[in-house]
Amino acid sequence: MRIQPPPVPLWFVATLVPLVASQVIRLDQTDPLAWIACDYAGRIGALAVLGLIPAARAVAFVPEQLKIAWWEVAFWVIGIAAFYPFVGGTIIHVIDAAIPGTKLGTSPVLHGWLYVMDITVGCALVAYSEELVFRRCSRAIFQKSIGDGSVMIIIASMLFASYHWWTGIGSIVTVMLFGILTMLFYRRAGALWPVVMSHYLADVGAVV
Question: Where are the alpha helices (DSSP H) in 27-84?
């Protein structure tokens, strides 16, 4: 029996275009301001696609109600936020040491007002855009054909990891594990905003 891949609507593909295009363009940027400008532009472009296309808007910006208690939200947020600095870094180091030379680029080291802007506005934009696209939208798309179980979680997390194609194998593996954790949290919580918060804190913890 041949398994058919889940159908992906064109609006979702259109959402990925500015995200990936900005990554390709920023690889050639040596100026930190130009690098983050490309990064922000790609994310804002993806959000614009979701907002301008009615079918996308109906999926991306649907209201959701929190299904779990606040203490459980705090437990998940703290756990996921601690994943990158305490677990993810070790995974990246071990894999990249065993399989070197897979990084195609690195994030610039920021200073001054650029640093402050990036850990506030930038990290918030990263968390919101990626959770909206790779958690809410991908879940809504894939669960129609493959359900809301482990297969959906793995496929959506693989897509999320592939978006980080330029960061090296160690980072890609870590991002996939992070995607699995955040999708589990999203399914459990029923609302996206706590997942965005955990993603934001994880990114801040990785930067500072």
Answer: 32-52, 54-60, 70-83
CA–CA distance, 45 with 19 (Å, rounded to integer): 7
Q: Provide long-range contacts, Cβ within 8 A and 24+ apart, for 87-92.
A: 88/174, 88/177, 88/178, 88/206, 89/206, 91/170, 91/173, 91/174, 91/177, 92/168, 92/170, 92/171, 92/173, 92/174
Between helices 150-162 and 138-146, what is the axis angle to 10°?
140
**First-residue to last-residue Cα distance in the chain:** 50
Task: Report the sign of the C-alpha dihedral through residues 129, 132, 134, 135, in that order.
Answer: positive
Separation of alpha carbons 50 and 61, rounded Å: 8
Query: Which ranges of the chain have pLDDT less than 70?
Result: 1-6
**142-185 tens-digit pLDDT:** 998 899 999 999 999 999 999 999 999 999 999 999 999 999 99
Contact 50/12 with Cβ under 8 angstroms? no
Structure tokens given for 200: 């934001």
Give me the helix-helix angle, 32-52 and 123-131, nearest 10°.
Answer: 30
The per-type count for the chain, helices as H runs and strands as E runs, is 11, 0
Between the CA atoms of 91, 95, 100 and 104, what dihedral angle is there, to the nearest 10 degrees?
-60
